[in-house]
Amino acid sequence: MSNKGNTFRQTGNSVSGKRAPQKESTTFKKEKSQKNSVPRDYSDAQQKAVKILGILLILLSLAFATAFVSYLFTWEDDQSYIAKTNGGWSTLFRSTEEIHDEAVDLPVVDNKLGKFGALLANQFMYEWFGVASFLFIPVLFILGYRLLFKKSLLPLYRTVVYSFVAIVFISVTLGFLHGFMADTPHMLEGKFGFWTNKLLEAQVGIVGVGCILAFAYLTTLILLYNLDFKFVLFSNRKSKSFSEDMEDEDEDEYAPHNLRNKIHIEDDSIQSVRESFQRPTSINERFQSAREKDIQEELQRPAFTHHAVPEVQIDPKDKVVLSFDDSPLERTENTPSISFTIDQPNEEFEAEDLPLIREYQAPKIEAEPQQEPEAAIEPDAVPGLVVEDIKEEKEITASDLVAQFGQYDPKLDLSGYQHPALDLLKDYGGGKITINQQELEANKNRIVDTLRNYSIEIESIKATIGPTVTLYEIIPKPGVRISKIKNLEDDIALSLAALGIRIIAPMPGKGTIGIEVPNSSPEMVSMRSVLATEKFQKTDMDLPIALGKTISNEVYIADLAKMPHLLVAGATGQGKSVGINAILTSLLYKKHPAELKFVLVDPKKVELSLFKKVERHFLAKLPDDGDAIITDTKKVINTLNSLCIEMDQRYDLLKNAQVRNLKEYNAKFINRRLNPEEGHRFLPYIVLIVDEFADLMMTAGKEVETPIARLAQLARAVGIHLVIATQRPSVNIITGTIKANFPARLAFRVLSKVDSRTILDTGGADQLIGRGDMLLATGSDLIRIQCAFVDTPEVEQISDYIGAQRGYPSAFMLPEYVDENGDGAGSVDFDPKDRDQLFEEAARLIVMHQQGSTSLIQRKLKLGYNRAGRIIDQLEAAGIVGPFEGSKAREVLYPDEYSLEQFLETLRKDN
């Protein structure tokens, strides 16, 4: 099952609802739900200790039950034994001979749990709480069950509190009752219940104790059950029809002066009428929007100036019509009537049995001008009709959801995941630079002498020592042309006998000229020394990659999310693959599997194969691909196009969520402001890494270039980032379309200045010394870095460590892709006899929603992505949905469920 749709599994944990219009924050309809208790995580040792404690408590509850039940039958002998030994618990560890020497005629202990059971039961039932001590047994059992199985039979906190309250109440109550029969404690109430009653009796007397107990019990009933103490002391009278009941009423009761006394006027009556029309009750559904408008207009008119007699009629359709008939005046179309259906038509009923409605204030109608106005009358509802306040469903906001459930945690599915430890990486040294003072002095003198030979005087020179390169910064005297110094690059290299030097004239923002000279004994930069730094451990970057150390021996960490794509080039054997491993290792050490997924393309088939073990944690692939490391060119094309589909789908989600990038979208989703029922889900970052891009361009060409260019142009905002590596940075491999969208370039040593200009737009990469020495171009800046070294055994240990932990059921599934020839991630050729069991249910779901998407089937039917994808392909083969159309949902070919059922019936007959 894919983890793609795993959006709301925590806290039990999907809250369904509809987004309220015209509100800034998303709202959902409130549902009755309980927050699932999530057991806290323990270490292995703690988990073992918790399980042992749970078993101990369960066995202890059984021991209590055995001792207590046995004590009910053997309490006389047990108490006699304890009384004669005068030792109590101290006799538990004494031998029988010692006890018999001190006590004569010592009775035999008959408790099924022996001496321990007798002492235990006597302590609880006689010394303490009496038979109420039996409640300790379920408390111990529930506690042990909770610790052993990490789930509760009953609410733990309430069970413990209620049990102890019940123990006290029962003990005191039995002591009160037993006090009438004896003046000594008994096992029924124990000493606690007996002496508590004696203490209370001395203060308030027996009657006072009884009143206190009654008050305590009634208070408990009110707190637990909200007891209202309404007792029905009369029987219902015989029912009769509503029409007969109305005939029995006195006609004078509806006279104007009597009716005026019956009218109940509320200050907010008009508002209550409007609310009653707006609420979705069975009565209000009969009013159309035009009718509501007419009634609201009637509310603005003057009061009655004529007698209006309410009447109730029974129409043939079993409806009671309540209306106000002003017979002397002409009845208008706006005269209101309220109708409702009787639940049991054609049967006798009382007015109390009618459906409940709101109090309704009749509209006020102005009489003719020539008539003498009388006192205003506002008719009320018919007597006998009970008014019920219809409760409106309260809508809750995202802040209410966060307050109730907390923020959504995408890491909860793998809450026990542990990041790799630094011990898995080798330490190749402390990272301290060894300063060779003689070498520094000799190189400085040679640089000064060489420049002086060409009549170039300098004012000062200083050196900055790095792991592999030392930077000499010189300040020339006024009047010296910088270009003259740059032209002496080869001459200075000759005088220093160096492998290759690089002149930076001028140094950006410093006002100096830099000369980079390789060290005679370069230091290795280990990956461990870089990742162990506080700079990396406390970084707040979205996708931090630790590349190595600069020439000033500072750790350099870049944010891949800000680059946003990285183009890597370098000749064979210059450290390009190690650089990719460094990028992968940095992200594996920093990110959780729920936050990051890799799409690995390895045409060489051996460079990235070590990461196959983290497939169920960090890798993404097409639904039908067996291997998550993509090596076949055809699968690479399908995967790149699938990433384009994923990109388009993510942009649709961002558009619906009204956000601009992935970070804002996920923050909104974590704060529960997006509804998962509308397709929203937590979106992890996706990093595409291609180890040898030149091979793909030679074999596929435009089929690879087009999706790569699309991703490079658009994928940044939706969290899809590219790392493209090649050993031949020629213009036919790194085309202008691709190069324009990769502002960040990482160049290892190349063999010619042309290649250096192709990758960096400037020279310098041909002057590197190799073995991880690289130049990083980010916009206008060019930084020289010694790449951190991570060896193959280290990568293997990291992969083994992650792969051994619990992961998702499968790799992260990318959207299915079918090319023009019908090949790709899905196939539409299915045997009708092999259709899925949920085929018809999925077809009805698709037609009902008129949306042919795999995610809809996956979400509604709670299926994995693979099975949902097969069902959608079967629906396509059956002609229920249309073909795949990229980011758009498939077209549904059946307009309603009736036509679908006819088609499904035909399919059943054919099979």
Keywords:
alpha/beta, Threonyl-tRNA Synthetase, Chain A, domain 2, 911 residues, ten-stranded mixed beta sheet, transmembrane, single chain, Rossmann fold, elongated
Quick gist of this model?
With 911 residues, the protein is of the alpha/beta class. Helices cover 40% and strands 12% of the residues.
How would you portray this structure in words?
The chain has 29 helices and 21 strands. With 911 residues, it is of the alpha/beta class. Among the domains are: 44-225, no CATH class; 438-518, Threonyl-tRNA Synthetase, Chain A, domain 2 (2-Layer Sandwich); 560-780 and 792-813, P-loop containing nucleotide triphosphate hydrolases (Rossmann fold, 3-Layer(aba) Sandwich); 838-908, Orthogonal Bundle (Arc Repressor Mutant, subunit A), CATH 1.10.10.10. The strands form five sheets. Strands 11-10-20-19-18-12-17-16-13-15 form a ten-stranded mixed beta sheet. A hairpin with a 3-residue loop joins β2 and β3. α4 runs antiparallel to α5 (156-178) and α27 (854-860) packs across α28. Mean pLDDT is 75; it is low at 1-41, 231-290, 302-392 and 821-829.
